[in-house]
Amino acid sequence: MKLGQWIGLIALLISLYILWQIRQVVLLIFAAVVFATALNSIVLRWRRSGIHRGLAAAMSVGILLIGLVLFGALIVPPFVGQFEQLSTLVPRGLEQFQQWAEILQAQLPGRSLVPDVSVLVRQVQPFATWAFNNFFSLFSNFLTVVLSLLLVLVLTIMFLINPAPYRQGFVLLFPAFYRRRVDEILSLCRVALVGWIRGILIDMVVIGFVSAIGLWILGVPLVLANASIAGLLEAIPNVGPTLSLIPPMAVALLDAPWKAVAVLILYFLIQQLEQYLLVPYVMQQQVSLLPAITLISQVVFAIFFGFLGLFLAIPLVIVGQIWLNEVLVKDILNDWQDSPRSAQSKAQSSTQSPEVVQINQ
Q1: Looking at per-residue confidence, does 59 or 110 come out higher?
Q2: How far apart are alpha carbons 89 and 76 in whole angstroms?
Q3: Three-class SS of residue 97?
Q4: 3-state DSSP assignment of residue 180
Q5: Do the beta carbons of residue 228 and residue 261 sit within 8 Å?
Q6: DSSP, res 325
Q7: I need a labelling partner for 1 at 20 to 30 A (CA). Which of 101, 178, 216, 255 fits?
Q8: What element of type H or E holds 275?
């Protein structure tokens, strides 16, 4: 290798190392790009009405913030009231559990099947002590999350107000002969991300509404809280629906054991509804992804990047799939120059009879 090639290789390795060290910041920037892409479709509709882009962006962000505030005002008070109910249900459930344990212990003397509640309380005390001693660490982590959200919000507004310079700057990173092609790929990514967000919103609304109706019919407490959790976690395929099952089953078990089984059946039916009715419609709004690829990507991104990677796994896979398909498959592999031997074999195959060609196919 020549000196220039060695310098290029070293520069590439250093760049990859720096990107890995700031991977969380890169993910936050990507999250801001996703949100800006979603809001940009609203801005374009305002622009068709003759409104200036800056004003259209401010109106779009304002509508989003007002919607979040209204959502919080409608959801947070019931959450607080229902969690107060939960704080009374948990001790009652522990007392009932202790009574069942005593009855079972009386029927099977000589065997300690279930530990006493007081023992459980003593075991929980070290955790409470650890949480108190590490209060500042927990507060620091909470502050980091808040600052990350503010960073994403500020970057989203910046990208939304004037996206052209950022897009042009990214395109300039590529050779001149390939920049028009990069711009086309970015347009494909924008269309795919907007379709994915539209499909996810449809999923979240339908699943949350159906879950609320089902939990209300079963008489499970904390209907609003559990239905909201089911709708929000629908944004994380595969993992989200499983996690959303835990809170309603726990609350139903405290209320009546048979309701926990009923909740499990209800959520199974809801997932079947999503699989056979919602997914075919939603897939028309976004890029088709193989289920195995979706699950593997979520596991891999969660291991390397934590919860943020799990949350952004699907849009990352969508964008990555488009780039691989357009650059690697279409622009490189499909235009791969044939060797003389492969060209000769192709010419021979073209002279075969239709029957032989059909058999080879």
Answers
A1: 59
A2: 19
A3: helix
A4: helix
A5: no
A6: I
A7: 178
A8: none
Reported for 25-29, long-range contacts at CB under 8 A and 24+ positions apart, including other chains, are 27/305, 27/308, 27/309, 27/312, 28/148, 28/151, 28/152, 28/155, 28/308, 29/155
Instruction: Tell me how many helices (H) and strands (E) the chain has.
Output: 15, 0
Q: Is the pTM of this model over 0.85?
A: no
> If DSSP states are collapsed to H, E and C, what string results for 39-61?
HHHHHHHHHHCCCCHHHHHHHHH
Token reading at 46: 């305002």
Ranges of H-type helices in the chain: 3-21, 23-48, 53-107, 117-133, 135-161, 164-171, 179-218, 223-233, 239-255, 257-273, 279-282, 291-311, 313-323, 340-350, 354-360
Closest among 201, 248, 231, 270 to 75, alpha carbons compared: 231
For residues 330 and 77, what is the distance between their CA atoms, to the nearest angstrom? 53
- Contact 332/195 with Cβ under 8 angstroms? no
CA 344 centroid distance within chain: 49
Token pair in block for residue 308: 């943020």
186 contacts 63 by C-beta, under 8 angstroms: no
Please spell the DSSP secondary structure of 131-158, one letter per residue. HHHTHHHHHHHHHHHHHHHHHHHHHHHH
Separation CA 209–CA 226 (nearest Å):
11
Q: Are 104 and 113 in contact (CB under 8 A)?
A: yes
Which residue's structure tokens are 């959303």?
244
Give the C-alpha separation, 8 to 2, whole Å. 10
Q: Return d(Cα 194, Cα 201) in angstroms, integer.
A: 11
Closest to 116 (Cα-Cα) out of 103, 127, 101, 133? 101
CA distance 349 to 345: 6
- Tens of pLDDT, residue by residue over 23-63, are 888 889 998 998 888 888 888 888 888 888 878 888 888 88
User: Who wins on pLDDT, 165 or 291?
Assistant: 165
CA end-to-end distance (rounded Å), the chain: 43
3-state secondary structure of 239: helix
Q: Which candidate, 253, 255, 212, places its Cα nearest to that of 230?
A: 212
Q: What is the CA radius of gyration of the chain?
A: 28
